[in-house]
Amino acid sequence: MAMVETHCARTSIVALAIFAASAACSRSTPSDGGGSSAIVELDYYTDAQGSAAWQKILDTCAQQTGVRIQRQTVPPPQMLPKILQGASSKSLPNLLFTDNPTLQQIASTGALAPLADYGISTEGYYPSIVSAGTYQNVVYGLAPGVNGLALIYNKDVLSGAGIPVPSTWDELKSAAAKLSKDGKYGLAFSAIPSEEGTWQFLPFFWSNGADLAKVDSPQAIEALKYVTELVNGGGASKSVLNWSQNDVADQFVAGNAAMMINGSWNLARLDGEKALHYGVAPIPAPRTGAKSVVALGGEVGAIPLSNKETQQAAAKVLSCILSEPIMLEWSKSHAYVPAKADVAAKLGEQVPAMKAFIEEVASAKSRSAELGAKYPKLAKEMATAVQSALTGQQSAEQALQRAQQAGGS
Amino acid sequence: MTSQRAAGLAFLFPALLYIVVFFGYPLFNNLVMSAQDYTVKSFYTGDAPFVGFANYAAVVHNPMFVRAVVNTVSFTVGSIAFQFTIGLALALFFNDRFPGSDTLRSLLLLPWLLPLVVSGAVWRWMLDQDHGIVNAALRALHLSHLLHPSGGPVPWLTSTTWSMPAVILTNIWVGIPFNLVILHGGLRAIPDSLYEAAALDGANAWQRFRHVTWPLLRPVTGIVLMLGLVYTIKVFDVIMVVTGGGPANATQTLTTWSYGLSFRDFAFGQGAAVGNILILAATGFGVLYARLARQSMDAA
């Protein structure tokens, strides 16, 4: 029960909070007295390491371009509501960094400026990140760094049990089962009922040849069955249903999981654990010789429409953030994969732990490339399907058929 | 007379203005929104075609609707029944002054003072299937097999059967102080002389409760239950933090569903429609309460 007023405001009806809040938030635009040399930037890097690293990048670019940057940070789930508030009160930030599958939603409103107008070219970028930032053939967003998922394993535990790093589904299943004992589990991943859960399921889904256009294909069903068996076979805790990716990292660090599927952004944290010796490998593929396909993650920078001068200033800052030295610096400090292939190769030489991620990102798929603005709804239905199958509420077939009906139309 | 009336209105004006701006306007907007095809695009362009009752129809025909209503009802009833009973028991307990009773009573307010996100996160942690303290305690007390036939750890948050009891449990804990405080206040208002008289008549503890405490506490009970109902029916944070509406929608209530429709599906019109249905239900209970309160006042 919530007796506190803030809760009343938030709970009674979330949708109407937008209106109330948008009125209160409209002051956040910079005063136009500063002319073109001040912009508001919005991002969701709220973790201590990521936030500090990003602040450094912004400081560098403010210095290089002479543009004053007023930074705003919101927790990831509040990013889109915040943008919508800004859109309805015509007070969008001048430069925003948002999760790439939401870019097309935002672009569909007509609130973003095409990057080509400011001479920002897509040359040298991974095609997947370009397609994630493209809406109706116009590029609206680009990223300095991207990320993906890989298998992170505890070297000591695996070698102690004499188990080689798994590279196929069968190997992963048997390794996970063997490593599960005494309240510890072989594998941890996230299957929460949100985009995070879908994003963690997609590597299994895509690697098996399934397609978002038809999420109840035999390949998709086989992938979901596989994940269900991983859990039901005892190789992973049932708690994957409640674990966010941060929780998964906690379990891994605490020694409760010998392997985890997680993103590169966790590496900085793992490096901080002196007693932990970890290795990184691509996510095991369905069969020998097959290649695993992960979803492309990370944030794209976009320039909302405001006025010419401010857009110009925002573009200058974005160009700076996308420049190769900054791209490399950001990727190193936040364990991201540079969005340009040749910069990524350079990083791979300097930071060996990133190699598996770089390899995966090269073939990663953009989540919204096929479905565009329809993706978020389907993603939610898929996360529910994974939960239904894992809890035994529905068979993999039934669960995915329902997802296809509810989200695919 | 008229100048007095004018003065009265002048004093009423600030409150009225506040209500219109902060409740009336958003409420009106939500009503309008529920009749519109409101998309992400609408936020920017302001363009949202009117679709009449199409959003309500879509929501009611969605298989999730029945499920969310059933979940909302069981969450509300389950939470209130226990919050109230435990709150009342504690209020009676603390009504007898004993050394340290004030300190203890203030400590019991703690759940109320904590941000719900914090309480939720801690409960989620305690209810963890493998490493949670709740299962560890059940195991130590040899109670696991009572709750879970296999005797294994109770899958509080990972099974569709147990997740609803788990969120209700959390919400009960959060709601006890509210019940305790109000009921305790009500108990204090009952004159001691009545108990003395009852004691002289030879009434035992149960009879004193049954014939003195309970009837005199009734107006306060009404308030507690009705406010509890309105607050519980719209609980969002606890469920969102503890289960996120999962697993597999097992704890999805009208509030979390409304949020999901708005901010995950971007079907803002439908989200608003679900919200309005909820407001309607809560208003219904509010009106009922107002009438009951008036009746009991008239009777008194």
From TrEMBL, chain A:
Signal sequence, renumbered to the chain: 1-23
Domain of life, source organism: Bacteria
UniProt key word Acetylation: no
Coiled coil ranges: none
Keyword annotations from UniProtKB, A to Z: Signal, Transport
Cell inner membrane listed as a keyword: no
Family listed: Belongs to the bacterial solute-binding protein 1 family.
Protein's name according to its UniProt entry: Extracellular solute-binding protein
Species of provenance: Pendulispora brunnea
Organismal lineage: Bacteria, Pseudomonadati, Myxococcota, Myxococcia, Myxococcales
From TrEMBL, chain B:
Key words, A-Z: Cell membrane, Membrane, Transmembrane, Transmembrane helix, Transport
Chief location: membrane
Subcellular location: Cell membrane
Matches recorded under InterPro entries: MetI-like (IPR000515), MetI-like_sf (IPR035906)
Domain ABC transmembrane type-1: 69-289
Highest taxon listed in the record's lineage: Bacteria
Gene3D superfamilies: MetI-like
Membrane-topology annotation of the record: Multi-pass membrane protein
CDD domains assigned: TM_PBP2 (cd06261)
Transmembrane regions listed in the UniProt entry: 7-28, 73-94, 106-126, 162-183, 216-233, 267-290
SUPFAM superfamilies, per the entry: MetI-like
Family assignment from sequence similarity: Belongs to the binding-protein-dependent transport system permease family.
Protein name as it appears in the record: Sugar ABC transporter permease
Organism per entry: Pendulispora brunnea
